[in-house]
């Protein structure tokens, strides 16, 4: 006959220290082990698990060269610099502000795209910072025209035109001698003036100089009473009547 004896063997249950407010750092993870536990700092932190310090990833980051890094608790953030675009700051592309139409250049300036920015340059005939351009070619501000020319202002430019009766490029103007073209009547005389001319009928003619008609002097009886008057082109002739002699102005 077999006899069995039973012994009271102690039974042990592991304590999960991770559930009992263990001493791991708040930025560490607790790993329960049989009869103990392990603390390990989370990603972005360094230490022994009981004490964890934030790692400044910006000291050794892979952000794009045209971005800036911002350290955050346990991590970091890359942001593209102003003038660049990108989703995460790891890949940043230059923004062409001149093509985007978002710039504030003056309409009288030229936009030039630069890395991460742009430049506004006032067009010829204007001055300013490119965002504000003032017309410096205004005829009232600066006038390179000849004294016998007229200045006409346009946007950023001005034009010199010689006045009537003059010839030249506007910067240099010369009087035109209109009399060389014989503008007056054949029975008139031309007098050239500065920028113009005057036509005057010759003696014995009347009119405006451009059209001259013969004056019939005989109508005013210029001859002697005993003389006969004959009108000629531009003049007249007095001749004493038969039986008289003299100049026609005096007949005896």
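Q: What amino acid sequence fits the structure above?
A:
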């Amino acid at each position: 006959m077999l006899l069995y004896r039973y012994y009271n063997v102690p039974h042990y249950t592991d304590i999960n220290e991770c559930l009992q407010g263990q001493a791991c750092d708040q930025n560490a993870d607790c790993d329960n082990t049989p009869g103990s536990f392990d603390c390990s700092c989370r990603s972005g932190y360094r230490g022994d698990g009981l004490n964890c310090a934030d790692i400044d990833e910006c000291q050794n980051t892979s952000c794009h060269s045209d971005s800036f890094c911002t350290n955050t608790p346990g991590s970091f953030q890359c942001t593209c610099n102003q003038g660049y675009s990108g989703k995460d700051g790891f890949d940043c592309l230059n923004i062409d502000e001149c093509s985007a139409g978002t710039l504030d250049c003056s309409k009288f300036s030229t936009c030039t795209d630069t890395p991460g920015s742009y430049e506004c340059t006032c067009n010829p005939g204007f001055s300013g910072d490119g965002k504000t351009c003032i017309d410096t070619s205004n005829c009232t501000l600066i006038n390179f025209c000849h004294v016998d020319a007229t200045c006409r202002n346009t946007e950023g430019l001005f034009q010199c035109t010689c006045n009537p009766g003059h010839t030249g490029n506007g910067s240099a103007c010369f009087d035109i001698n209109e009399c060389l073209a014989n503008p007056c009547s054949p029975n008139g005389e031309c007098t050239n003036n500065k920028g113009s001319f005057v036509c005057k009928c010759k003696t014995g003619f009347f009119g405006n100089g451009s059209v001259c008609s013969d004056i019939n002097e005989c109508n005013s009886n210029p001859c002697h009473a005993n003389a006969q008057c004959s009108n000629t082109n531009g003049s007249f002739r007095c001749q004493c009547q038969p039986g008289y002699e003299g100049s026609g102005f005096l007949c005896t």
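Q: And what stands out in the fold?
A: The mean pLDDT is 88.
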